[in-house]
Amino acid sequence: MSARGSTLAIPSSTIHAATNACRFSFIKQLWRKPKKGDSHLLAQFYREDSKLQQTVMRLLVIPANEQTGDEAKQLSQRMRKQQGNVMNLIIQIIQQAMPDTYDRRDFRAKYTEEVVTDNINGALWHAVECLSYGVEIAYHPAESVELQPLSTQVSSLIDVVRNCLRIHCHVKDLTQLPTQVLDLLKTFDETWARFEWTYASMMCPVLSVEQFDHQQETIVLFCEASQRALRKGWLSTEMFEYMDPVLMFAIPRLAIVTGLTIFPEGPLDLSRQPEDIPQCFRVFLKVLNKIKNLMDILTPEEQDRLEAALCSSEGLCTSNRASNGQLKAVTVVVKRKPRTHRLGAVSQQDDLEDECPKKESPTPPAPTKPVPRWEEPSAQELRAAFPSTDDLLQRLFVAVSGIADQMQSNFAGQLRAILQSVFTVCMPSDEEDEEPVVESTPVESNEQDCGDDCLSPRHSAASAAIAMSPTHTVQSESPRSSVSSFESPMHAASTGRPVWVPDHQCNTCLACQHTFTVIRRKHHCRSCGQVFCSRCSSQVVALPQLQYNRPVRVCDTCFTGATNLS
């Protein structure tokens, strides 16, 4: 990661070769101009880049005395948005042209959630323009000077890449671009990623390696606590699907109890050094130690009762309460004689007597006795310190809830990012929501007329493997099985619903091209049947024409189409 901040030396031969490959006559450029109906990436780039050029030209003709007016501000905002769209298309072109060698920008995992926005590339382009013209960033004058050479290289590369892609806008298969252009795109991708990391590290808080590891451990702990609550029935999948606000305080509470009792070797391992414990738990070490001592004396039934109460908004109903609503005071008995104090009011004379004790005749020293060592109270002694089990559970409920509420206040941003990952992992999968309509071709009827997709060797091989599997049945016994519950396309024909693309055939999101991981899960669009990530399929809409009367998950493109039709 440290190498991201160094300046990249761009060979001039690469730029010259790419420029020579883009030299065409004006007539050839007009002849190769994409048509209105072309929808491939280079055609989209050509149209969006043309809009950007028109906006820039309108900005340039505005007089100097009117550059602070409303029209100039609107044009500037439009230009920033169009710059982001153009750069996003360039990144998509690079990813499809070089699927194995492009920079995947794994360092974005260290960003906070406020950094990664939809127009992050537009903001970076604006920063490149400012730094290349010598503008200093506020509160970062030294870093601005260091970034100026790199921003100048990026600015020149953007112009060359835009010209080359406009010349080759007729190419539909991006892998067929000239070698010189591919080399230029690779150089630009590396330089752009280097500038992004350097600029983001300078302007925004970036997690260190230790902080990132602690965050991942905490995410795993929160996910395990949520999955355990789902299995126990304390939480439901509907709460995750509709993002019930109760989960915002229930999950941190459960994570504290789970980390102290179920997974004691995880991030809440209190035997670690303080610096090895995540920061969100580090400030509560003393209270966590006391909670762990009390949790160790609970029976499994009592712990289940406590965790069920932590998931509820009503809390723990107990009968051992004082008349004024406050909990009774409880003192833990230990094997050490406590120091006696005088109760009640103390007069000034008593204070003087305490500060200036009277002289007494010397007495022979008594034989010294060994000081008794501190011993941890046993389980029976801890139990005896509380009037009842309800009082013990109420004390634990208040302590755990207090820590969770303080975490919500003191580490709001960090906890929000953790809970966002937990919601992504625990969100009900497509197979739990609906019966999947996945493309499948029986072995004995491979030559049926079911479309071009059924004749694909890849699809027929996958269908044959599924049909020959011993677990393949028409109706699966387990509702959570995603392999044994494949349905024939006949159901899709009867309902009009599209055939779902099998999960094993998709490793990246169709919209953003991000690779699916444990956190970035696969989701099917109910309208087109393609596979997307949760961010690209976050919209819900009813599809009565497909017999979806309640709102279901759709991708952004289908949501726009459905909204326009309605």
Write the layout of secondary structure elements.
Blueprint: H1 12-21, H2 26-31, H3 41-60, H4 70-97, H5 120-132, H6 141-167, H7 179-203, H8 209-232, H9 237-241, H10 246-261, H11 279-282, H12 285-295, H13 300-310, H14 348-355, H15 379-384, H16 389-410, H17 412-426, H18 430-433, H19 457-468, H20 489-495, E1 523-524, E2 531-532, E3 539-543, E4 548-554, H21 556-565
Antiparallel strand pairs: 1-2, 3-4
Helix pairs in contact: 1-6, 1-7, 3-4, 4-5, 5-6, 6-7, 8-10, 8-17, 10-16, 12-16, 13-16
| Termini Cα gap | 49 Å
Task: List low-confidence stretches.
Answer: 1-9, 319-359, 431-491
Give the H and E element order: HHHHHHHHHHHHHHHHHHHHEEEEH
Q: What is the structural class?
A: mainly alpha
Total beta strand runs: 4
Oligomer: single chain
Largest sheet: 2 strands, antiparallel
Number of helical segments with 4 or more residues: 21
Query: Strand-residue fraction?
Result: under 5%
Please give the order of strands in the largest beta sheet. 1-2
Average pLDDT confidence is 74
Shape: globular
State Rg: 33 Å
Question: What is the share of helical residues?
Answer: 40-55%
